[in-house]
Write a structure and sequence with these properties.
With about 210 residues, this protein is mainly β. Helices cover about 10% and strands about 40% of the residues. The chain has three helices and twelve strands; from the N terminus they run E-E-E-E-E-H-E-E-E-E-E-E-H-E-H. The longest helix is centred in the C-terminal third of the chain and has 13 residues. It starts with 7 loop residues before the first strand and ends in an 8-residue tail after the last helix.
Length: about 210
C-alpha cells in the first residue's frame, strides 16, 4: 500500500528485454536520489509513476535498483521509457503517516493531459480520463496521477470521457515529475479505493436474492 506522497524523483537509465516476443516484459534500471536506497531491500515494493513494482536487484554505489515489468503492465501504463523522470514512493509501513490517501499502486487507466498552465501561484492541470473511470471521479474526491495523491476540483462529463481539473501547489510542481507535463502527454491514473468498494456494494444490492429453502 502507498499514500500518493512522492518520496523522490528518479530516472530510468536502462531497459533490457526479458525475451524476444511481445509477450515478454522488460527489466528497468532506475537511478535514485542520494541515500534513497539506504533502507530498501530485495523484494521491497516501490511505486514507479504510481505502478507498484518489486525491487529485483540493488546497486548501492551507483544509487540504482532494477525491477522486472511484465508486458501486461507495460501495455497498461505510460511514462516508463529510458530517460524519463519518474515519481518514486516506497511502500507504506505500519505506523507511517497517511499524508495522502490509500493507494494500491495498481494503475486503472491512462489519461491524457488536456491543459497545464500556471494560474496565480499554482498550476491548473486538466486531464481527460477514460470513459470507464468517469463514475469514480467526483468533486473534492481523490485521484492518483503518476503516483501523486491529488484532489479533484472540477469534473466535466463529455461524450468522449471525463475531464477533471486539479490544482497543483508549487511544492508538488517542484518535487515531483508533474511539473514537466504538457498537453497531449499520457498519465497513469488510479481511482480512489473507497469509490471502488462503494460501486461493488451498490451493485451487489441490486442482484436478485436467492429464495430461502
Amino acid at each position: 500500500m502507498f499514500t500518493g506522497i512522492i518520496t523522490g524523483v528518479g530516472r530510468i537509465v536502462a531497459s533490457h528485454d526479458l525475451g524476444s516476443s511481445l509477450q515478454h516484459g522488460k527489466r528497468l534500471a532506475i537511478a535514485c536520489p542520494p541515500a534513497y536506497l539506504d533502507d530498501v531491500g530485495l523484494g521491497d515494493s516501490i511505486a514507479l509513476n504510481g505502478a507498484c513494482m518489486t525491487v529485483t536487484s540493488l546497486d548501492l554505489p551507483q544509487k540504482q535498483f532494477t525491477i522486472d515489468i511484465s508486458a501486461e503492465s507495460l501495455a497498461r501504463t505510460t511514462g516508463l521509457q529510458i530517460g524519463a523522470p519518474i515519481n518514486l514512493e516506497k511502500a507504506l509501513r505500519a505506523g507511517d503517516r497517511l499524508g495522502g490517501h490509500i493507494v494500491s499502486g495498481h494503475v486503472d487507466g491512462v489519461g491524457r493531459v488536456n491543459y497545464f498552465a500556471q494560474v496565480g501561484e499554482s498550476w491548473e492541470l486538466r486531464i481527460q480520463a477514460p470513459a470507464e473511470l468517469a463514475k469514480y471521479l467526483a468533486y473534492k474526491g481523490s485521484i492518483t496521477v503518476n503516483g501523486v495523491s491529488l484532489t479533484v476540483n472540477r469534473v466535466s462529463d463529455k461524450a468522449e470521457g471525463c475531464e477533471i481539473s486539479i490544482n497543483l501547489i508549487p511544492h508538488t510542481v517542484q518535487n515531483t515529475s508533474l511539473g514537466l507535463l504538457k498537453a497531449g502527454v499520457g498519465v497513469n491514473l488510479e481511482i480512489d479505493t473507497v469509490a471502488r468498494y462503494v460501486e461493488r456494494m451498490l451493485a451487489a444490492g441490486t442482484l436478485p436474492q436467492k429464495a430461502s429453502a
